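Bit of a strange request maybe. I'm writing a small parser for structure token strings and I need a real example to test against, not something I typed by hand. Could someone generate the tokens for this chain?
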Amino acid sequence: MLAHGRRTVVVTGGTGGIGAAIASRFAADGDRVIVAGLDAERAAEQLPAAVRVVQLDVTRNGELQDLLSEFDDLHVLVNAAGVITRDQEYDPDVFAQVLEVNLTGTMRCCVAARKALAGSGGSVVNIASMLSFFGGPKVPAYSSSKGGVMQLTKALAVAWAEQGIRVNAVAPGWIRTGLTSELHGSPEASRRIIERTPMGRWGDPGDVAGAVSFLAGPDAAFITGAVLPVDGGYLAA
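Reply from user aminoacidic:
Good idea to test on real output. This should exercise your parser:
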């Protein structure tokens, strides 16, 4: 496994929120970072200048494979693309759309990157969720998709270990991002979340980025199939 500073890293869904924080962390570690996602023009203005940003839709077959064909190697793939549509996901069409991005999109990107990762002895870090572990009544599709991401992570870890590819995931809790703005912007909702969280605060995107950096790095060389909660103790409470 290569040390920090000499790796090629692709972050899908890295154009905002947690994904952007992850991309910024790898760039700070000295890695060559490519962010692939929607709204690339806006993201390019927010990410470090060293990060390359490309337009990519994880629901379209072949787009990631076309991007990967430019590289001689790939050491880390982070699947951070995701959507959530509160109070709308009982509509079967919306349900299917959320799964297409969050679960099938993750699988599509993993499969596209497998050969390149095997060549470098690289790793995948997927973004699961605390809702991988329990139900979200307002977001049945998101909950289902993130439960699927957790199981997909374990299945690929077992299937690809002999190829030298590690596959892990992080499961963020309540992280202060645009996706959670409705909740952390509400004093009452935010109070309930903080009171339930043993560490007594919202998480920051950088908290997740640090965990991803660890799982993708040499100190995690004997870790695969793990799903690491980054939630301030929320799941344990």
